[in-house]
């Protein structure tokens, strides 16, 4: 494990790179146990057991091409409402600002897909996984940076910054920018409004399968067809079902596009 030569705005925090690991989540937990301060992170060139929000989903990444890291945040941060969305806000702003610094433009502006993904158009570029514990929260992030090709089963739904911008990105410069914007997003009293502005497919009719709060793997009943109205103060999604005036709030679940016949397509 070697230090990464970037500025970390969190007081006393460190950033490390490990060539290969099973999971940066576990590496960051070991850092916290050793007494490293909040804001410290571990990135990996490759990980063999990257996890998604659901147990059956794994994060696939070509070694050395992408940003795979976990940042440790303190207990006060863990208690913030809408934490994955705040992190998504910082990530969305970071990739947008980085593209501007390059003088490049995305074909479609990056958007936050509730509750924890970053999309360009309708393709996933990043995922966020937050795991709380006694010490605080461990936020794992996988961001496709310079990977140009993906497994066939993912090629229609996944993208990378390099594919969208037509050029490679400097991973550590982007990570440094993200950390700066993360610190701001965690303290922003208007975070909800800022997330709403960047929310994927807000105001459109989508399919939503409700889940159980705290147990994201549990999806219940039939999909709801409704308008995505935004998020509430807690970070829950707001859906107005078809032919209803009432807006309903859901703390967990899965949001997808639908076809004209209401067949889920992604």
Summarize the structure.
With 266 residues, the chain is an alpha+beta fold.
Report on this model:
There is one protein chain. The protein is of the alpha+beta class. Helices cover 24% and strands 32% of the residues. It has two domains: 2-197, Bira Bifunctional Protein, Domain 2 (BirA Bifunctional Protein, domain 2), CATH 3.30.930; 205-256, SH3 type barrels, CATH 2.30.30. It has six helices and 14 strands. The strands form two sheets. Strands 1-2-3-4-8-7-6-5 form an eight-stranded mixed β-sheet, with helices on both faces. Strand 5 (110-113) and strand 6 form a beta hairpin. Helix 3 (83-102) packs across helix 5 and helix 3 (83-102) crosses helix 6 (191-197).
Mean pLDDT: 91
What is the CATH third-level topology name of the largest domain?
BirA Bifunctional Protein, domain 2
What is the number of helices?
A: 6
- Relevant CATH superfamily of the largest domain: Bira Bifunctional Protein, Domain 2
Radius of gyration: 18 Å
Biggest β-sheet strands, sense, barrel: 8 strands, mixed
Which oligomeric form is depicted?
A: single chain
Q: Specify the structural class.
A: alpha+beta
Number of strands: 14
Strand and helix layout:
Elements lengths: L1 E2 L11 E7 L2 H10 L7 E7 L19 E7 L1 H4 L4 H20 L7 E4 L3 E4 L2 E11 L2 E8 L17 H5 L5 H17 L3 H7 L7 E8 L2 E5 L4 E8 L5 E5 L5 E4 L2 E4 L10
Parallel strand pairs: 2-3
Antiparallel strand pairs: 1-2, 3-4, 4-8, 5-6, 6-7, 7-8, 9-10, 9-11, 9-14, 11-12, 12-13
Helix pairs in contact: 3-5, 3-6
């Amino acid at each position: 494990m070697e230090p990464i030569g970037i500025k970390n705005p969190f007081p006393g925090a460190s950033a490390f790179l490990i060539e290969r690991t099973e999971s940066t989540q576990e590496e960051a937990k070991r850092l916290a146990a050793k007494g490293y301060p909040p804001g410290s992170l571990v990135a990996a060139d490759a990980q063999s057991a990257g996890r998604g929000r659901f147990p059956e989903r794994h994060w696939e990444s070509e070694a050395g091409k992408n940003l795979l890291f976990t940042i440790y945040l303190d207990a006060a941060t863990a208690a913030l409402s809408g934490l994955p969305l705040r992190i998504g806000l910082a990530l969305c702003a970071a990739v947008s600002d980085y593209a501007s610094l390059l003088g490049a433009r995305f074909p479609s502006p990056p958007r936050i897909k509730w509750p924890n993904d970053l999309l360009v158009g309708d393709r996933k570029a990043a995922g966020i996984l937050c795991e709380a514990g006694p010490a605080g929260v461990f936020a794992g992030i996988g961001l496709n940076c310079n990977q140009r090709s993906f497994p066939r089963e993912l090629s229609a739904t996944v993208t990378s910054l390099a594919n969208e911008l037509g050029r490679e990105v400097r991973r550590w410069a982007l990570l440094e920018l993200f950390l700066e914007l993360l610190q701001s997003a965690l303290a922003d009293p208007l975070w909800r409004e800022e997330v709403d502005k960047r929310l994927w497919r807000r105001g459109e009719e989508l399919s939503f399968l409700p889940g159980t709060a705290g147990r994201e793997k549990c999806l219940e009943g039939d999909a709801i067809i409704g308008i995505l109205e935004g998020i509430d103060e807690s970070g829950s999604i707001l859906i107005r079902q078809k032919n209803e005036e009432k807006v309903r709030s859901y703390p967990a679940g899965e949001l997808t596009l639908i076809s004209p016949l209401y067949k889920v397509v992604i």
